[in-house]
Amino acid sequence: MTKQNIIELKDIFVSFGEEKVLDGLNLAIRDKEFITLLGPSGCGKTTTLRIIAGFLDADSGEVVFEDKTINGVPSYKRQVNTIFQRYALFPHLNVYENVAFGLRVKKLKEDEIKEIVTEMLHLVNLDGFEKRSISTLSGGQQQRVAIARAIANKPKVLLLDEPLAALDLKLRKDMQKELRRIQRQLGITFVFVTHDQEEALTMSDRVVVMNKGKIQQIGTPQDIYNEPENAFVADFIGESNILDGIMRDDFVAEFSGHVFDCLDKGFDKNENVDVVVRPEDVDIVPADKGMLKGTVTSVDFLGVHYEIIVDIGGFKWMIQTTDECFVGDNVGLYIEPDAIHIMKKSEYSGLYGDYSTYSEEMEHLSDIEPEDDDE
Amino acid sequence: MNKKSFGSRIVAAPYIVWAAIFIIVPLVIMVYFAFTDSNGAFTLTNFAQIGRFKKAFGLSIVYAVIATVITLLLAYPMAYCMTKMKVSSQRMIMLLIMLPMWMNFLIRTYSWISILANTGLINKFLGLLGIKPLQLINTPGAVILGMVYDFIPYMILPIYTAMSKIDNSLLEAASDLGSNSWARIKRVIMPLTVPGVISGITMVFVPSVSTFYISQKLGGNKTLLIGDAIEYLFNTGPQYYNVASTLSLILMVLILLCTLIMNRFGDDEEVVV
């Protein structure tokens, strides 16, 4: 992958009335990468996309495309194309004409248009759909037409605004793979917006986690998952037990009344920190062999594993295990040093508690947010 | 076909009765008169007299077409500008467009007389500037002006409705695909507002082609439109009811044909493009 930046956003501020939507955003997008903007509804991810597309002007800041500032350049002159949340296909045109739209605007010759449209429809597996009217297509097919229409213009950057949000789970999985394939095949930059962390992790080269108009963390999916920078990222990406802890020394952390070996260093002696332990990294052992001891308060069978909640000194841990447990069992927890991740305290510390209640935690997965475009 | 429930028949009954008394019965009476003589015997002689009204028919159609075209040319940009305004301004303009419709249309037509008359507002103003009075009233122009003025709301409203229904993301998509504002109008807004334009044209053309009042008040006696002819015949006496009914029938059929052609055109538009 080339490391050259194709788009740079510098110090972008946007407010709608009183509300700060983007608060000093800095982001460099590399050429030919698949980058995902991930965050909850209202975090500014769609706004960021609209600024790149040219539908929205930032209050201040600079948008750079291939080393040229493009603030104020209207969207129809930008070499980016967008796939809209609800596809925005032209209802008065058939599939062929929808895909040909941008080519006709460019006044290409008829045989050139035909060649490109046929190629694009083949790329998205819609051969033979040329004459179909948009209203007769299923959601997944409309999605494919939207993709074909956008890439027919050979953009340098493709912007995708929650394109899969309206599809059902199975179709969404297929389209994720499909989009990834198309991106590799065409070798163009994809900027993908989603609120679905799983989608972000599976598809992206890099993930940008956003909240409240600010970037929380940028990194590969592995970085984001294994080395979250603060409690917000740890909580938003996957499941996590986030505990208050104290760094006793390099590689030594104390939390839940026990001193653990860990792999983190570079903190002050006795610095207060947030500790993240992923549910799947905890082993259930007999109570007398555990580093921590507690009582099982709930057990859910999820097929691949059990999801159990263990109460340890009042803090409810979530643990994913393939060992069957029963409510009321006394169990021990065993945690390997590499399962522990230490984070500096941040504005999000203490906001995400334990698993005593299922808070919004699970909702990120299920809510499809079509209202995101008016954030 | 599923059977209508008893309840829905009951609910529909008043409308069916209404339609029968005020639409079907008058139509039957009209057709009856059109095909009978003054003694009530079947005849086709009424149709033989149509030739005398060729000019009135022709003039009516020409005037109505001109008025409809002018109305469309004025209303379309107007509706477009409205959709670009703030919502509060859109409501205000809408109110202003509707406001004249709260007044009787005869009165509105009358008020044009006092504006266009030889000693009317415009000529008085021109007089102040030292310009000779112009012949404004009793001209074809005045008749067309009256039609445009009276019927333009019926053109603006359906076009405006069709335009404001266009999802903004379609315009963004068009822009994203390289269309400047003119290309957006041509390739997205115009095709998507065809149904609005069709109903606007129908709603302006139909009353324009059959109007009689406007031409009498603003056109003087110089322009005899088919509506005037029918009115004149009915007012002259019962012996002319039959010919007048025949003219009405033919006018109706003409309007029906025009409407069918328009709708046909509208359907084609959506498929072909």
Question: How does this structure look, described?
Answer:
The complex is a heterodimer of chains A (375) and B (273). Chain A has 375 residues and is of the alpha+beta class. Chain A is built from nine helices and 20 strands. Mean pLDDT of chain A is 89; it is low at 358-375. By secondary structure, chain B is mainly α. Chain B is built from twelve helices and no strands. In chain B, 30% of the residues are buried. Chains A and B meet through strand 6 and helix 2 of A and helix 8 and helix 9 of B.
How is the topology of this model organized?
The complex is a heterodimer of chains A (about 375) and B (about 270).
Chain A: E1 5-16, E2 19-30, E3 34-38, H1 45-53, E4 60-65, E5 68-69, E6 80-83, H2 95-105, H3 110-123, H4 139-151, E7 157-161, H5 169-186, E8 189-194, H6 197-203, E9 206-211, E10 214-219, H7 221-226, H8 231-236, E11 241-249, E12 252-255, E13 258-261, E14 271-277, E15 282-286, E16 292-301, E17 306-312, E18 315-321, E19 330-335, E20 340-344, H9 363-366
Parallel strand pairs in A: 3-8, 3-9, 6-7, 7-8
Antiparallel strand pairs in A: 1-2, 1-4, 4-5, 9-10, 11-12, 11-14, 12-13, 14-20, 15-19, 16-17, 16-19, 17-18
Helix pairs in contact in A: 2-3, 2-4, 3-4
Chain B: H1 6-34, H2 45-48, H3 54-83, H4 87-98, H5 105-116, H6 121-128, H7 140-164, H8 168-176, H9 181-210, H10 213-219, H11 226-236, H12 241-272
Helix pairs in contact in B: 1-12, 3-7, 3-9, 5-10, 7-9, 7-10, 8-9, 9-12, 11-12
